[in-house]
Write a structure and sequence with these properties.
single chain, alpha/beta, Rossmann fold, CBS-domain, 2 domains, 6-stranded mixed sheet, 4-stranded antiparallel sheet, 17 helices, 17 strands, elongated, binds adenosine-5'-triphosphate
Length: 398
């Protein structure tokens, strides 16, 4: 099991003069809107509890004002929690002195912002090594680390350029390099790619995933974009009005959205890149198991019992053989043939295939397509209508 890198326990953040009073009102059942109307205080984060595994990309997603930035800034105490605990490597950061906190921020956590926040009068290598300079690292060492970080983001030839000589995408790479330069265990990325144009943005997302494959860090990435969350996230936490309403893998969230708010994020999202055949497979009632002695007559009877005109023919050990139809069975019966000769050679679909890859296959078939595992075992079927429903609506709650 992976190690827990970050643990957040019952964390609240109230913005306002008397946070404890607001928490009391919340405890007594007052709504956040009422608390704001009566006191002017905002509940930025309400009772957040979750754990982030070492090496995972954990995306926090939600609409504007849902509390994402507040939650992420609570992790390194750029914002002080009103109550609750936050552990990094089992150290309770809510109890650290200022000096210990600065130390943790310099050594363990880096942050990348949406606005690249580069210093215009400094060249790239000085920008990247600025944090190390603040930590008192000598020039040779910090330049070496900065150069390595620039290489990781593909900008090693731009060390002596100035920020305004670089494009937006390159400037954000510098922002990333600056975060990488002190070799942090944890990177907090607040809408880090949102200011980039779509093509560069996708490129940066791919690069981040690639970088992550080489050097496993723990990344907490804020996004308001589900496409991005799906692309890079191992798990996604969805925030609504200050609360974390759902945490799961992209597949889990798409397959079982916790509420309508979560569901609304999928409108227009390319779920075909997330769901594969195994996610939407269903067992059909009309399956025929190849028991000893199943002949054409009993197969026809079996199909009739289920009021279908086809069935899947499967060996006793679960291996998929093919499709039997009433028509093909009757044909063989007429000529005194064998049940195996009645099998229609229907191409089954591998359970790992993504929706986009097999939709045309299924659409071209008269019967629901059988889904098999890598070793040829029958898993269930996918019908054209079911597939199109998932394709169009993104969510399948049948
Ligand atoms: N310093 C502050 N003082 C008062 N209220 C604040 C402060 N910072 C944030 N808030 C409020 O807390 C709530 C959560 O804000 P937050 O910025 O965390 O949301 P967000 O999901 O990151 O939004 P966005 O995507 O627009 O950045 C909002 O209602 C916001 O107005």
């Amino acid at each position: 099991m992976s190690k827990k890198k970050l643990i957040v326990k019952n964390v609240f953040k109230v913005f306002g003069k008397e946070p404890k009073k607001a928490l009391k009102m919340l405890n007594e059942g007052e709504s956040k809107d009422n608390i704001f109307t009566k006191t002017g205080m905002t509940i930025g984060v309400q009772d957040a509890s979750f754990e982030i595994n070492e090496g995972e990309i954990f995306v926090i997603m939600g609409l504007s004002g849902s509390g994402k930035s507040t939650l992420v800034r609570l992790l390194n105490r750029l914002i002080e929690p009103t109550s609750g605990q936050i552990f990094i490597d089992d150290i309770d950061v809510t109890n650290l002195s200022d000096k210990e906190l600065i130390d943790i921020r310099r050594k363990k956590i880096s942050m990348v912002f949406q606005s690249f926040a580069l210093m215009p009068h400094m060249n790239i290598i000085d920008n990247v090594s600025f944090g190390l300079e603040l930590s008192g690292i000598e020039k040779d060492k910090r330049y070496e680390a900065a150069q390595k970080a620039l290489e990781q983001v593909g900008l090693n030839h731009h060390a002596l350029s100035f920020p305004d000589e670089l494009s937006g995408g390159m400037q954000q790479r510098v922002g990333l390099a600056r975060a990488l330069a002190n070799d942090p265990d944890i990177m907090l990325m607040d809408e880090a790619f949102s200011a980039l144009d779509p093509l560069i943005r996708t490129e940066m997302q791919d690069e981040l995933v690639e970088l992550q494959e080489k050097e496993k860090r723990t990344i907490v990435f804020i996004s308001h974009d589900l496409d991005e969350a799906i692309r890079i996230g191992d798990r996604i936490a969805i925030m609504q009005n200050g609360e974390v309403v759902q945490i799961g893998t992209p597949e889990e969230i798409i397959n079982e959205p916790a509420n309508d708010y979560v569901r609304s994020f999928f409108k227009g999202v390319d779920v075909t890149s997330v769901l594969n055949a195994s996610h939407i497979v269903k067992k059909t009632k009309a399956t025929i198991i190849n028991k000893e002695g199943v002949g054409i007559k009993s197969a026809l009877q079996y199909i009739g019992d289920y009021d279908e005109d086809y069935a899947y023919f499967i060996e006793k050990n679960g291996k998929y053989i093919g499709l039997l139809t009433v028509e093909s069975l009757k044909e063989q019966k007429k000529i005194d043939g064998n049940i195996h000769d009645a099998v229609i050679d229907e191409k089954p679909i591998n359970e790992n295939l993504q929706i986009g890859e097999f939709i045309s296959d299924v659409a071209g078939h008269a019967y629901p397509s059988a889904v098999i595992s890598d070793d040829g075992k029958y898993r269930g079927t996918i019908s054209k209508s079911r597939l199109l429903k998932v394709f169009d609506e993104g969510v399948d709650n049948e």
